[in-house]
Amino acid sequence: MRYFGEVASSPVGKRTIYLTKGPGFGSGRHPTTRMCLRLLEKCLDRCSCKKILDAGTGNGILAIAAARLGARNVTAVEIDRESAETARENLLLNRVAACAHVECMDVRRVHGMFDMVIANLSPVHANEIGIILEKHLCCGGCMILSGLSGFEKERVLRSLTGSRKLRLAEDLWEDGWSAVAMEKPFRLSRARQAGRKHDSFAGRGEIRSVCHVNTEMHRGSHPRLH
Q1: What string of DSSP letters covers 105-127?
Q2: DSSP character for 161?
Q3: Region 41-68: what's the mean pLDDT?
Q4: Which of 16, 82, 88, 182 is 20 to 30 A from 27, alpha carbon to alpha carbon?
């Protein structure tokens, strides 16, 4: 990823994410966010995900990335009210509000099933939240968990690949942090399973730019990037 300073007038491109200055984790600079973005792109490159859940969206960076990469139904959940409002502003700024929306709520209250679940977690709650989120993952879906320390990563993998039967598809490590992508097996007949394509992860290219936007401006003026 590249980071920009002052930009007078930048078009919104598929590989560029604009972020307002405000509360909410997810600058794009932290290893846990970078790894989530890499895994997100690889997952979306190899399968079509109709519904995506971004659990604990922060400022909305992962939900925006999913929409930029072609997702058409993204639910971003954030418990902190101010962060949720920042995420909504960022969805509008990146012109993806038509296919992504933010709900201010605890992830424990999420309803419905999703083809992909993304969560950049606190290590303290990683195992508990991972188990909760797995219940909302469709068969054949992909779960991306980041923000894991070494000990918590092993605990999460034991929980989700054990009795819950998820399959570890990819494991990333950067600066003491881990991120994993896991797949939930299909419950299909053998004939249908044999006819389904299973490719290894191969990304279509990375989100190249994250721009931080100063939105302290008069109505109608153009965002000033910083």
Answers
A1: S-GGG--S-EEEEEEE--GGGHH
A2: H
A3: 90
A4: 182
Return the residue matching tokens 């009795």: 163
Mean pLDDT over the full length of the chain: 79
Tell me the angle at which helices 61-68 and 81-93 cross, rounded to the nearest 10 degrees: 30
Give, in order, the Cα–Cα distances in Å from 73 to each of 48, 76, 113, 116, 177: 11, 10, 12, 11, 29
- pLDDT of residue 218 exceeding 60, the answer is no
Q: Is 62 helix (H, G, I), strand (E, B) or coil?
A: helix
Q: DSSP letter for 72, please.
A: S
- Overall average pLDDT of the 113-124 stretch: 90
The model's pTM is 0.77
Band (pLDDT 50/70/90 cuts) for residue 165 is: confident
Please say whether the beta carbons of 113 and 51 come within 8 A.
Answer: yes
**DSSP structure class, residue 205:** -
Domain ranges of the chain: 25-197
Q: Where are the beta strands (DSSP E) in the chain?
A: 2-3, 16-20, 52-55, 74-78, 100-104, 114-120, 137-148, 167-174, 177-183, 209-214, 224-225
Q: How far is CA 225 from CA 20, 73, 204, 218, in A?
A: 9, 28, 27, 15
Q: What is the arithmetic mean of pLDDT over 114-121?
A: 94
pLDDT, residue 209, reads 55
Look at residue 92 and tell me whether its pLDDT is greater than 50. yes
